[in-house]
Amino acid sequence: MAETMLAADGTPLKRSLARALRRQKLRALMLIAPLLIFVLITFIVPIASMLFRSIENEIVQNTLPYTVQELASWDAATGEVPDEPVFEAMYFDMFIAAEAKRHTRLGTRLNYEQTGLSSLFRQSGRKLDDLGKDIQKPLEKLNGDWKDGETWYAIFNGTPADTALLATQRARVAALTDNPTEGDVNFAPRADIVQLLPKTARAYTAWAVFEATQKDRDPATRDPWEALPVALATDLQTADLSTYSGPGADLLRAAQSADLPTPDFTTAFVDMDEDWATIIPWQTIQTHSSTYTGGYFLNAVDAQKTPEGIAWQPDDKQILLKLFGRTIWMSLLITFSCIALGYPVAWLLANLPMRKANMLLILVLLPFWTSLLVRTSAWKVMLQQQGVINDVLVWIGLVDDANRLIMINNQFGTIVAMTHILLPFMILPMYSVMQTIQPSYLRAAKSLGATNWTAFWRVYFPQSVPGIGAGSILVFILAIGYYITPEIVGGTKGVFISNRIAYHISSSLNWGLAAALGSILLAAVLVLYWAYDKIVGIDNVKLG
Amino acid sequence: MADTATDQAFVEFERVQKSYDGEILVVKDLNLSMPKGEFLTMLGPSGSGKTTCLMMLAGFETATHGDIRLGGTSINNIPPHKRGIGMVFQNYALFPHMTVAENLSFPLEVRKIGKSEREEKIMRALGMVQMQDFAGRRPAQLSGGQQQRIALARALVFEPELVLMDEPLGALDKQLRETLQFEITRLAHDLGITTVYVTHDQTEALTMSDRVAVFDDGRIQQLAPPDQLYEEPQNSFVAQFIGENNTLLGVIEKIKGDTCEVRLDDGSIIDAKPINVTEVGQRTRVSIRPERVEMDKTRLNPDAHTLKAEVLEFIYMGDIFRTRLRVAGNDDFVIKTRNAPDQIRLTPGTQIDIGWMPNDCRALDA
User: Fold this and answer.
1) Contact yes or no for A173/A209 (Cβ under 8 A)
2) Domains of chain A, each with CATH number or no CATH
3) CA closest to B166 among chain A residues
4) What does the alpha-carbon distance between residue A325 and residue B153 come to, in Å, rounded to a whole number?
5) What is the DSSP string of A357-369?
6) Contact B111/A449, CB-based, under 8 Å?
7) Of B58, B175, B253, B269, whose CA is between 20 and 30 Å from B341?
8) Quick one: DSSP state of residue A457?
C-alpha cells in the first residue's frame, strides 16, 4: 500500500487523474459562471454586507475618536461626570462632526440605546459655536490679523512637515464622512508648530483636510472654524513661546500675554444642555464605543447592553421576542394547515388517471399565474367584515348582522391567506414523492392482511414522509420570512418579524437592528434545516 | 385429481367475466378449478387476461359476472385483506422503509401474533429461502434475487394456503431465474401450498407447473400438464405459443380415423393427425416440432410421405444443431438435431428429404 499507483507515463495516478478531470471541471465552472457572478454581485454580496451591519458599530469611534480615547480611563461606577479633558475632546470631535453634519447620525445611533440622546446631540450641535465666539471675538479684537485665514495658514503651514499628523487627520475625516480624502490638500502641518501648539495644529489640520477634500476649497485662503481660536486659547495656556521664531511669533506672543478667556468646556456643555452634567450620555458613549457590538443582537431579543452588563427590557416593552415567537408559531400553524389540506390533494393527483390528474394539477398551479398581491387583496375582499364570507354567513342566517366575524387584520386572516398562497409549495413536493410510490405496495400490504387504514398508515404514509418533509421545509421557510401578506391582512396582531425588519429598514432607519433581526431569522432557518437533517435526513427530501 | 370429497376443488372460477369499461370483455367466460396443493401457471401473451384473473382472485379487481370460490365459499364480496392469500408481486413490492425482518413481521403483526412466535416464524420463513443473515438489511441493500427470495418469504410467512405469484422472476437474469424457478417449485411442493403463478415465459411455465392454463383473448385456450401441452397442443395458438414450431398451411384432403392427409399449398401431400379439423376441404395449419422432423428415411414408415427440402442455414448451438430449411415454399422451417458423434452437419444448398411420424404432425385450425 505504501507504493503509490503510477500511470503509464510514470506520474502518480492521482495527479494524472486530477489533470484529466481539470479540464472537465473548468468547463463545468464556466457554464455556471454567469449565474454565479450574477448571484454573487446582486445577492450574496449585498446580503453579506447587510448582515455585517448587525455587528458593525464604527460610527461612535469614527465620529468621536478623541472622546472615546479620553473616556477609556473614566469609570462610570464612581457616579462622577468625566473630567475636563473628556469635555474638551468632545468639543473638538463634535465640532468637526457638526460641520460634516454627522453628529445627528450618531445621536440617532445612540438613541437606540438611550432615549433622548438624539435631541441632545442635535441641539448641542447647534449651540457649539457659542463657546467659539466667546474666544474668537477677544482674539480678533486683539489683532485684526486673526480674522484672516491667511494668517492662520502662514502659522501652521510649512516644512519640515509632520506627515504623520496629516495622515491621521486624513484618515479621521475619511472615517467621519465616508468619503475619500486622498489628493492634494495644499497644506502640510509644520513640525515645530505641531510641537508647540498640538491641539490647535491637530484641529487646523483636520479643518484643512476637510476643506480641501470635502468642500473642494483651498485652505490657504479660507477662514478657519470658530473652534480654532478655542484650541489656540487652550494651547496658549501651557505653550512655551520663548524660543519660537517662526511665522506669526509676535502674534502668538501677544495673544498669550493678553488676557484671553480660559475655555471652560464642562460649563460650556452644561450650558448647552443640562444632560451633559449627568453620566448618562457619557456612559452610553463609553458602553457603545467598540468598533463591533453585540448590541443590535441584544436589542433584537429585547435586551440591552448597559455598563453593568446585559439587561432585559421591562416586560411591557418586550415586543421582538414575542414577535419571533409569534412568527414561528404562526408559520408552524400555516405549515400544518398546508399539510392537512395538501395531502389529500397530492394523493388524488398521484392516483387519478393521467388526464384528470393533469387537469387537477393545472388547478393547483393556477394561483402561480396570479399576482401575489392580487391573491392577497382577494382575501381582503373575502374576509373583511363587509366582505363576501360575512355577507354569505349573514344571508344564510348563521351570523347576526350586528356580530359579523372579524376575520381580517388578525392572526386568523394571516393564517388563512398564507395557507392558501403557500399550498402549492406543499402539494407539489408531496405529489412528486407520491408519484413514485407504486400502487403495488398498498396491494401487497392488503394481501398480507392489512386493512385499508393499516396499509395506508404503515406502508403508504411512511413512504410519503419525504414529500411532507420537503413541502414543510419549503412552506415553513417561506412563511417565516413572509412579508407582503401579513402586511396587508395581518393588521397589528397578525404581522411577522419580517414586517418589523421592513419597518426598521425603511422607517426607523435602524439598519443595524434590522440586520440583527434578519440574521437571527436566517440562523433560525439554518438551525431548523440542520435539525431536520439530523432527524429525517436531507437525503430524504425530494422536490421532484 | 382424486375424486374424494376432501380433495374437491380448492380454487374455482365459474363463468367469470371481467370488463373494465363496459364495452370490452377482458376475461370471457372463465371456468377453472384447482385442487389443493396444485401448482398452476397462467401463461399467455400480455393483454390475454391472465393478470386480471389473478387480481380478481386476490381481490384487487371484482368480477363483472360469475363466481370465484376459495375452499368452497364464494369470495366475491370478501375484501383482499380477509382472504388470507399470499402474494408475490412482479416488482417484489417490499416495503422500502422497513428492514427485511420488519417486512416479514408485517403480516404477522396485523394478525396480532405475539412477539416470540413472530420471531420464530420470521426466522423459519427466512430459513426456507436461505436468507437468515439478511434480517436486518433494507430491501435497497439487497440484489434482485435476494429481494425476490424475501418477497417469497413474506408471502409464505403467515402460512397461507394459497399463494399467487405475478411474474415474480420477470426482472431477473436468466441464471438466477432458473435457480429461483427450482426453489419456488421445491418450496411449493414441500409446503403443500396451492400456487397460482402468472408468467409470459413459457419455459418457466413448463418447468414449474403441475398444470398450465394458456390464456389468449380472455379465454383459457388449453389447460393441461406441461408435457401434454407441448406435445399435444389443442389449437394452433397453443402450438405456436408453446415451444418452437414449424407450420405448413394446406387443405384437408382425406380423413381416416386418427390420421388424415393434407395437401399443402405447393401441392405436396403429407400425413397428419387431425386435432380440431373435421371435414375434407377445410383449411388447416399443420404443426411439427423441430426435433420431431426426421431426415433418416430408414426410421420412417415405408409408406410415409416425405417432402423435398433445401438447406438454407446451419447453426451450431453447442448441444444441438439448428438447421433452417426451405420446405414447401416455407423458408422458416427449422429442424433441431442432437450433437451426437455420428450426426451429419448439413451444408447450405444441400437437397434432402424429410419426414415425420404422422402422430407428431398435428393438423390444427388455420
Assistant:
1) yes
2) 20-52 (no CATH), 56-289 (no CATH), 320-540 (1.10.3720.10)
3) A440
4) 52
5) HHHHHHHHHGGGG
6) yes
7) B175
8) I
Residue that has been written with the C-alpha cell 478655542 in this structure: A230
Looking at the complex, does the CB of residue B363 fall below 8 Å from at least one CB of chain A? no
Cβ contacts of B82 within 8 Å, gap of 6 or more: A449
User: CB distance A451–B110 less than 8 Å?
Assistant: yes
**The complex's ipTM?**
0.82
pLDDT in tens, chain B (366 residues): 333 434 578 999 999 999 988 888 999 989 999 999 999 999 998 888 888 999 999 999 999 999 999 988 899 889 999 998 999 998 889 999 999 999 999 999 999 999 999 999 999 999 988 888 999 999 999 998 899 999 999 999 999 989 999 988 887 888 888 888 998 999 999 889 999 999 988 888 999 999 999 999 889 999 999 999 998 888 889 988 888 889 889 999 888 888 888 888 888 888 888 888 888 888 999 999 998 888 877 777 777 778 889 999 999 998 999 999 998 888 889 999 888 888 888 889 889 888 888 888 888 887
Which residues are CB-contacts of A96 (< 8 A; sequence separation ≥ 6)? Answer: A173, A176, A203, A206, A207, A210, A227
A446, A449, A459 member nearest B95 (Cβ): A459
The residue type at A410: N
Selected for mutation to probe chain A from B51, B89, B99 (highest A CB count within 10 Å) is: B89
User: d(Cα B17, Cα B20) in Å, to the nearest integer?
Assistant: 10
pTM across the whole model: 0.77
Contact, B64 vs B235, CB < 8 A? no
Please list, in sequence order, all residues whose beta carbon lies within 8 angstroms of the beta carbon of residue B74, skipping any fewer than 6 positions away: B67, B68
CA A209 to CA A188: how far, in whole Å?
10
Q: Which residues pair with B42 in a beta bridge?
A: B198, B213
Interface residue B89 vs chain A (CB under 8 A): yes
Whether the bond between B302 and the residue before it is cis, its omega within 30 degrees of 0, is no
Structural domains in chain B plus CATH codes: 5-236 (3.40.50.300), 244-365 (2.40.50.100)
What is each CA distance from B129 to A53, A128, B155, B159, B196, in whole angstroms? 66, 96, 12, 14, 19
